[in-house]
Amino acid sequence: MGAAGLNLFDSDHDFDSISDLNHEAGLDKLAAALRAKEQANKGIKATEKSTEDEDDDGYDYRFSLHSGSHELNDEEVLAVREHLESGVLDRMINERLQKVKSGKANPYTYPGYELVLIAVCAMEYGCHLSESFLDHFRRNIRSVGLMRDAVKQVDVALNDPVKGYKNDGTKYELAQFTGSEADKISPGSIMLNTPAPFGFFAARGAQAVQPNTRVFADGLCGGSGAHKKEDGGQLMRCAKCHTQTYCCAACQKADWKRHKLVCHA
């Protein structure tokens, strides 16, 4: 599988997971029910075949958990949101939280990574997420194998007071980040896909990249990916280059083997 970049939904793996999650959420049945209602309003019998509202392949239109995959009108967005908030979203989240806590999970469909996909998709629809879950999300986003720029995307969604997710019913537009030319030869960017701690490479906290390339997005701690120090203060900067940031001396020491090769005054 490949990936066009290091953001969420840049990889084949993410869309394969979304396809499975759509079925689990019952969005195919929801789309069929709404289409049947629409046909009834138009006087079309259920046994009749209508080409209206079909895609180029002849399949009836479908709903996706990832709203960016399909252009839905306001009525359809509301229908999906109400369906998810009817208990479907809570069930999907709680099942994966239990799997994460039990330590018993399929290594390919890693529940911690799926939680990220589910939560971000819910944000895109403007669904309400409990504060307790959002707190859990903040504490654990760097332990599920997010790709490098996906770490920054989720950080913005959860912590940016202006550009972040509002949790008030407003649809959220996920921030997008463009990597450097060096990313194009990084495993996971074009040739291989390593979005979670499984597959070709074992990645913890960030996508596995080639040696001496950045693991976390600019502005995050080079050792842990944190956006602030533990006491809430601003990150410290490398005294030599004044560019790389760290949340503590331990992270700076741990990252020095990598950073020293690119550090310059």
Any descriptors?
2 domains; 2 strands; about 40% helix
Question: What does it look like?
Answer:
By secondary structure, the chain is mainly alpha-helical. The protein has 7 helices and 2 strands. The chain has helices spanning 12-25, 27-41, 74-102, 111-124, 131-140, 148-159, 249-259; strands spanning 236-237, 245-246. Strands 1-2 form a two-stranded antiparallel sheet. Helix 3 packs antiparallel against helix 4.
Can you summarize this structure?
With 265 residues, the protein is an all-alpha fold.
**CA radius of gyration:** 21 Å
Secondary structure tally, helices: 7
Question: What best-fitting shape do the alpha-carbon axes yield?
Answer: elongated
The helix content is 25-40%
- Compressed to H and E, one letter per element, the order equals HHHHHHEEH
Mean pLDDT: 77
Count of the domains:
2
For the biggest sheet, the summary is: 2 strands, antiparallel
Counting copies of identical and different chains, the oligomeric state is: single chain
Strand order of the largest sheet: 1-2
Count every beta strand, where a strand is a DSSP E run of 2 or more residues. Answer: 2
End-to-end separation in angstroms reads 39 Å
How large a portion of the residues is in β-strands, by DSSP E?
A: under 5%
SS content category = mainly alpha
Low-confidence stretches: 49-59, 185-213
Topology:
Blueprint: H1 12-25, H2 27-41, H3 74-102, H4 111-124, H5 131-140, H6 148-159, E1 236-237, E2 245-246, H7 249-259
Antiparallel strand pairs: 1-2
Helix pairs in contact: 3-4
